[in-house]
Amino acid sequence: MIKSVVLVGRPNVGKSTLFNRMIGARRAIVAAVAGTTRDGVAGSMSWGGRSFQVSDTGGLYGASEDPLHELVAQQGKRMMQSADLLVFLVDGREGLVPGDQSIAAELRQTGRPVVLAVNKTDDKRSHARVGEFFELGFDPVVEISAEHGNGVGDLLDEIVSRLPAGTSGVAQAEPGEDISAPTVREETSIAIIGRPNVGKSSLLNRLLKEERALVSELPGTTRDPVDAHLIWHRRRFRIVDTAGMRRPGRVRSGGRIELASVAGAKRGIQEADVVALLIDATEGATDLDAAIGGQAHDAGRGILIVVNKWDVVKVPEPGFAKTFDAELRRKMKFLDYAPILHVSALTGHRTPKILEVIDKIASARRTRIPTPVLNRFMATVTATNPPVSPERRNVRILYAAQTGVAPPSFVLFTNVASTLHFSYERYLVNKLREQFGFMGTPVRLEVRRRAKRS
After folding, report:
1. For residues 201 and 217, what is the distance between their CA atoms, to the nearest angstrom?
2. Most-buried pick from 79, 373, 417, 449 (CB within 10 A)?
3. CATH 3.30.300.20 placement within the chain
4. What pTM was estimated for this model as a whole?
5. Spatial distance between the Cα atoms of 58 and 78, rounded to a whole number of angstroms
6. In terms of CATH architecture, what is 371-449?
7. Architecture of the domain whose range is 3-162
8. What is the pLDDT of residues 22-41, one digit of tens each?
9. What class has domain 172-365?
10. pLDDT tens digits for 270-319?
């Protein structure tokens, strides 16, 4: 496992800007508002022949209007304790302040190597104040501008030179698992998506068996997508806890940070192999749940519907779960292929089943059917129920081929330039599922007229 580098400092000293600069991507939300970052955001990078993970923490100490400030600070301190090296970021424009001294004292107690970076040294005035920070007792002191990139290369040189040799545990493994073993499968990316306050962060923490994401009763606690890695039964997973997605009107009224949070959630869907769509069992499926699920469906992601807070629901009769699921299916007819699990992130009820089902969905997405097998199958199902076009034309499917996986995609070559009736396409997809599985994944069909022979 690669080494862990954690960025620490007061709110709004530029940690998220530096994080984005270091990993070369806009992963952390940046705003001129103290306390924008809440959950720790992590990314991997290489410099000078060394690979390491960089984590951006929420601000420590300092004033903040964020009601979750204390939780953010506590999580930052936990990340400090598990780091291999700490980058202490201070604000050169403000100069040395008491909050910096408090953080410095805490950093010394960790026993970890510390690199002090003075940010925002873009002008003569801030450059002149760099000397104040020598009082903190860290050596060397590196001047940088995270916004413009000045000095960041020097900072990375210092990080690499001071990183302990060897490797350490960034990824999480189940007891007894050897994550370095060559038989561990290719990583499956999972995005946990849903409305605010349905339990996404609680579920991530339950799966990881640690307090990786902040959990609060306040909707919108998560802002940046939170990445974590996990080994389960020799399968490697990347799990992303995304920000809660709200109605477009409410997102616009939430300002820049809200817009960036939702953009990050949508990016999480696009980058995922499988999404876990969380539904609040106490509320049932809503129109917004269906809209969020529709985004994952349209993106061709594998989908598992996770009904959370099942421990809170009063089950009056044995058939309640079936009734609940039937109503959910009615609301989300287009997700009839997605399995449903009833869980409790709080108690752990049935949460171990989640990774098992997601692993099956990820495998189903990669299923490839040999062309002869596919065409024998098509001949059988079309003989039983001949094709129908919207124009009632005599359509024959001459042959079929699979054109891709993730999601499974097929092209059907016909004798005439016509589409198939939507109900007949649904019939073919259902038959494909019956025969070949495809659990939890969309199946794409394209109809083409066979080219005329010259």
Report:
1. 11
2. 79
3. 371-449
4. 0.67
5. 11
6. 2-Layer Sandwich (3.30)
7. 3-Layer(aba) Sandwich (3.40)
8. 887 554 443 344 444 444 57
9. alpha beta
10. 999 999 999 999 999 999 999 999 999 999 999 999 999 999 987 767 78
